[in-house]
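Example complex used in Figure S2.
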Amino acid sequence: MEILRTVLPFTFLLIVVAPFLGNYIYKVLDGQKHFMLPIFGKPEKVIYKLSSVNFSESMDFKKYCLALLTFHFFGFVILFILLSTQRWLPFNPQHVDNMNWHTALNTSISFVTNTNWQSYAGETGLSYFSQMIGLTVQNFVSAATGIAVFAALVRGITGQTVQSIGNFWVDLTRSVLYILLPLSIIWAVLLAGEGVVQNINPYTEAITLEGVTQIIPQGPAASQIAIKQLGTNGGGFFNTNSAHPLENPTPFSNFLELFAILLIPVSLTFTYSKMVKSPGQGRVLFAVMSILFLSGLAISLYSEYQPSEIWGNLSYMEGKETRNGIAGSVLWSEVTTAASSGSVNTMHDSLSPLSGMVAMVNMMIGEVIFGGVGAGMYSMIIFVILTVFIAGLMVGRTPEFLGKKIEAFEIKMCMLAVLAPAIVILIFSAIACCIPAGLSGLNNTGPHGLSEILYAFGSTAGNNGSSFAGLNVHSIFYNILTAVGMLIGRFGVIIPVLAIAGNLGQKKITPVSQGTFRTDNWLFGGLLIAIILIVGGLTFFPVLSLGPVAEHFLLQNGILF
Amino acid sequence: MILLLGIIYPLFITGIAQVCFHDKSNGSLVKKNGVVIGSALIGQQFDNKAYFTSRPSASGYNTLPSGASNLSLTSKKLQEQIIQRKKEFIAVNKLPSDQVVPSEMLFASGSGLDPHISPQAALLQVERIAEARHFSSEQKQKLKQLIENNTEKPLWNWLGETKMNVLLLNLQLDGIK
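Predicted assembly (738 residues):
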């Protein structure tokens, strides 16, 4: 009952709203007329005028890539300087000190790459200035970058012998102004109405009923949380993210935030259909993602409601909030790891073993189950191309995807995009398991210790950002290693994706014939699921069986560490 | 872009929030005789026997920063904590030793600031509080009524859990004459 009550309305509302938003996003990316133009059309022109970049140029793969990397590099430098000097900057009523270099480095990379991994506590480690000018801004632009890369890839796929895959600056600006900003304004106001703090006052001192002093933190939280959820960023304003009552105070705010995570990623499957002018293409991806999502959710719920003798059949409330309950917490953990959000309303470290595993698997298979804003779609299309290729090999046909021949170059790039994050997860975890600097951060021992490390690199490489927060990552070792992981996990995918876009764009479109392998039916959907699971399964099954799977059986047999 | 997203947008939202939801956007502060005694959203620790107890908190209801235990279900340390908390809860409320204690009173919350407990957890504490406050049977009836009045059902019967706010409950508890 509790489960149905929590899950059904959520999924139903998503399915109703997503096609409309998907259609709207298509219009924005395609440069068509839409109802937001009269409001934000002026600011768009002003932004173009004020910046010294060329907005009318049509970029080929290399130029697009260069623009993107330059933009991120400057974003990183500005954020790094902000965090390292926040003590001397305005909007700092709590006199928060400067961040040390390695935490600042980690945090700036984390927010620039849409990971939002946090190795600091927001309420004690950041000034309002850093939160607003630093993090809120990156929340917007890193999400917009995801949408831009997705748009570029699809233009490459649909373009007929073209060099251009669009203009990065235009894609970025339009995604921010017409998609993310309007939604964020609505969400921020609704959240503030539920009790999420939104002010720039100093913290309030309270004398409790028992006469103890308690500090009530304040800050411009609602505005940041809105985009944190909508942009699948996930970096909390406070340390405990959306488990914090000031960040997520009521059942309705919980619903709003949860809904916001999946809203744009789900809508983009419909945008995709529109862009490739074939409704089946997006529908099949939507179906595949939904099946994977619901299977994960089912395993997760099963594990969480499975009583164990050792805990005397108690429901597992450790790390969960009363107002969210078990089902509400598990649903969030599935949503936040499927989409690469990483915001949490429960502490994942204390989830039951298999729920923790589902969260890890969601991140490890490359954040393709709806995934990050834009990022989920372009990572999924990589798997689609792989599937087309493998299916083509099996039946002995030249692999074709939407009329484009898939050749050696595309497959090389696909493999790069699939392997880069996998290498980070496995090799970096292995390093952390072998040296004292890695092991000293552990909060739990036994198989769960391995899970903590594995989760950390799964989350950073998948640009998710949630964590098994018991692992102490405030060390130079973890700050540097996870930062490198985030960079590889983000750009190790984006650059190959753009290369594929550029290369496919130059090819001719072969008309559909009887012999064409269809990519919009159930057969293809089934194949796609198989490929995703086999690639993910073969790569990660051994290590997962040592971590969460082992832990599950130990728990059932009452063996603790 | 930085100007728009980093300054104009957050301050614009701040403006709207301050005008439309002044109390809520400033932390839903609760005042008693003009003094701020806490936030309706943030839990507090209650050690006094005459008050309802909040959930266990890994951070001791410290807000700077918020935090959880992050212990796994295969942690011996967690098991020891649960056994200890159960013993204490049963002892302090003078309950029979085989009493089932609601799990939110044994497991620590995610934020360490969870303001809520379940109505069952509150009902188990009634006898203790009545005794500590030397309540007559009439006052005890009022106390039970208070729990009922403070029980928050799921929103529109589908969103969220059945729960009650410990701070607001204790505040009204002081008002029982």
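The two ends of chain B are 59 Å apart (CA to CA). Chain B has two domains: 1-28, 40-173.
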